[in-house]
DNA sequence: CCGTATCCCTAACGATACTG
DNA sequence: CAGTATCGTTAGGGATACGG
């Protein structure tokens, strides 16, 4: 106990589960797209490489349940649905951008690390 | 195209996969622990709530392969192994802290959102 | 257009036992 | 101590078909 002024972020199981639900494979991309502007379901589907209907629906429901996005039903015919980032979701925007930017910037080094790792495994 | 000075972070599949591998259930916690100081295998195991040997091993291998951590074998008897954050991993430290901090700060609002969502589903 | 329902398959995980 | 190996279960994901 020397100089830990701020409380150590000992994650509770609840928090771990929550982060797990908003940092998964598709969520980051959905949040990223919705940070730009609201989108319709099929619009999102097209914007995200190869997500299936099922996975996208599941991701949207999960994000909505966790308060990260809002689902707005527009009562036209046929029905239209718009998804948009929530106030809570917006507070994560900078972090997401930073994360995606970090991944882009360091992908090269990651590739090299993978090469080294796989080589060592191969010769052993 | 108004003021987007930085390139839009259109994630490649490769980058998405990479982020997926270092933001998963256990990785965040492992990285967090190793940012504090190097740790031994069983030390990590105890430090992280309920991870199993198998999952911890898999997580460590994945992080090592992606260049985020380093595995140092100390040739004592019985063998000791120390894991520590890599230079690349360190560049993510602030982001991880921010992420964990954000989760802590907003957990309350998340709980409320869940309550609302589950209520609506229940009465429907 | 926006989903839900179904089938199927595989990747992940926990539990347990065993090795250098 | 630090793993690997195996087994059985289960959650996630893709493909497809159908409904409001």
From TrEMBL, chains A, B:
Pfam (any one): HxlR
Domain HTH hxlR-type intervals: 7-111
Gene3D superfamilies found in the cross-reference section: Winged helix-like DNA-binding domain superfamily/Winged helix DNA-binding domain
Domain of life: Bacteria
Keyword line: DNA-binding, Transcription, Transcription regulation
A single GO molecular function term of this UniProt record: DNA binding
UniProt protein name: HxlR family transcriptional regulator
Species in which this protein is naturally found: Myceligenerans xiligouense
Classification of source organism: Bacteria, Bacillati, Actinomycetota, Actinomycetes, Micrococcales
């Amino acid at each position: 106990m020397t100089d830990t002024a701020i409380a150590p972020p000992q994650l509770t199981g609840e928090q771990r589960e929550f982060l797990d639900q908003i940092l998964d494979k598709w969520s980051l991309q959905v949040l990223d797209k919705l940070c730009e502007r609201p989108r319709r379901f099929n619009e999102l589907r097209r914007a995200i490489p190869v997500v299936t209907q099922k996975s996208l629906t599941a991701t949207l429901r999960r994000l909505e349940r966790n308060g990260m996005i809002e689902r707005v039903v527009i009562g036209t015919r046929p029905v239209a649905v718009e998804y948009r980032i929530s106030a809570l979701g917006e507070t994560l925007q900078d972090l997401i951008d930073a994360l995606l930017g970090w991944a882009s910037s360091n992908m090269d080094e990651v590739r090299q690390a993978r090469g080294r790792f796989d080589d060592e495994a191969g010769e052993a």
